[in-house]
Amino acid sequence: MDYESSNWIWDGVYYYPHLFGGLMLTAALLGLSTTYFGGIGLSSLPYMWSDLGLFHKKKLEKKKRVRVYMDGCFDLMHYGHANALRQAKALGDELVVGVVSDEEIIANKGPPVLPMEERLALVSGLKWVDEVIADAPYAITEQFMRSLFNDHKIDYIIHGDDPCLLPDGTDAYALAKKVGRYKQIKRTEGVSSTDILGRILASCKDGNVIEDNSPRDAHEESHPSTGYISRFLPTSRRIVQFSNGKGPGPNARVVYIDGAFDLFHAGHVEILRCARQLGDFLLVGIHTDQIVREHRGKHHPIMHLHERSLSVLACRYVDEVIIGAPWEVTKDMITTFNISLVVRGTVAESDSWLKSGPDPYSVPKNMGIFKMLESPKSITTSSVAQRIVANHGTYMKRNAKKTASEKKYYAEKVYVAGD
Ligand SMILES: *[C@@H]1O[C@H](CO)[C@@H](O)[C@H](O)[C@H]1NC(C)=O
Q1: What values do phi and psi take at 283, rounded to 5?
Q2: Which residue range or ranges hold the Cytidyltransferase-like domain (predicted)?
Q3: Cβ-Cβ contacts under 8 Å for 370 (sequence gap 6 or more)
Q4: Does the C-beta of 235 come closer than 6 Å to ligand 1?
Q5: How far is CA 129 from the centre of its chain?
Q6: Which atom of ligand 1 is nearest to the CA of 249?
Q7: What tens digit of pLDDT does each residue of 30-80 get?
Q8: In angstroms, rounded to a whole number, what is the distance separating the alpha carbons of residues 173 and 312?
Q9: What is the pTM of this model?
Q10: Which of 21-25, 259-263, 307-311, 359-363 has the lowest mean pLDDT?
């Protein structure tokens, strides 16, 4: 059994775009650095660089690692993106992901909900991503493609099965196809950014996020007023594909953190990274839809339990999730999972639990194993939703157009075999 404990926490490596001149390396070194990076602090990273480069070359000489590239905007990143990148990674050994710049997104489809920094944090936080290129072009240019092949040593460019046309109507991947360095993955997931944007807009009335905490009607659907129908069909296979499939090793220190993790965002990635650093195994409890609804109002959560679970599972700092965790951290849970430490971020959606009702953390607090973690970022699910609401008109219009084209996609969708 592989009990290798995880020294692969890469403190903020992805905050070095300036140092690496636009090229951001995150887990670039993932395969080879497990032992090399253990315990090395942030500050020493840049100096390690040349050594690692050498080591990398030696390794390459032994066995050529296939490097694949995929790009995207990754705005309102969801488990569909994560799944596409998982499939892309399976086509090679190292996955390099290009994240389209804010400017290019603005020029091509209007302002992104998430700025570059947050989109990078989300993409870098995915366990299948080895390297990230910031500020990729929206439509792949011939020049950029050559730089991918020559400078970034990319073997194959991967794209979904939707056609990608350049402004002049030609196929953006024509060159890559011609030289036999193009591979395609199938779009299968029942979610899109358009869909999520639609859910958020639907949960708003007249440009306001509905923040009612009115008692929940037990028979109500989660989005009763909007008629929204999810196309998400959660399968056990997808959960297995996203899982690490490993329990904590012997003597592992298990850290537990729970929450809704709705609209998985950069703040979540950061707090999970901090939590993971406090132990050897991070167990994440995802609250049920009903619990989230009780605490945040009937239009929440935006993403359902299984969707939220996949987003959390896709995060490189997470070892295991409880799909539908109780509100209260019980003595039994602590024993069952051998939890050494229960943590909670200082930035949370709502503090109402503090004021009313029993403290869900009273057991770990009494045991002396509870710790508040300073949240590195102030982003919350509602702050992300608020950005959309603030740009209500723009997003409404954009979404109407995209919803129409997605309807067409679903109407013409055919069965595709494979992952
Ligand atoms: C339970 O966790 C502690 C760390 O807090 C560890 O020392 C102990 O070995 C773990 N128990 C088992 C059976 O792994």
Answers
A1: -105, 125
A2: 69-197, 256-351
A3: 341, 342, 343, 344, 361, 364
A4: no
A5: 11
A6: 14
A7: 333 333 333 333 333 333 344 444 455 555 566 789 999 999 999 888 888
A8: 32
A9: 0.79
A10: 21-25
